[in-house]
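Hi V.,

You were right to ask for the full record rather than a summary. Here it is.
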Amino acid sequence: MIIFVYVYCFYYYFIRSDMSGLMQTSFFFGYNAVVCYAFFLMLGSVGFSSSQLFVRHIYRSVGRCRGTGRRRGVLCPTLPVSVSCSGPSSANEAQRDEAEGETGSCGSS
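Predicted structure:
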């Protein structure tokens, strides 16, 4: 975006303005370069800061849900329970698996 703004400065200087001379040219392009650099720094710092806040928020949420640093009042989604390949460990689990159409074979038929 900053490059587009600086290219537009060239367009404005050569096509639309009546400026001429070394002093006007150097001041115009010099000040526009400073303004473009200031926008570059501002937009870059805003983008970096927002990305960093987002990533920290996501990693804190994952840490809480795993039981490390869980705070009061924070609702965490239930994490999937790992499936054992040895089959159901009780009769209740076997009945539930049959009702759901699952087998204890971990994908092999």
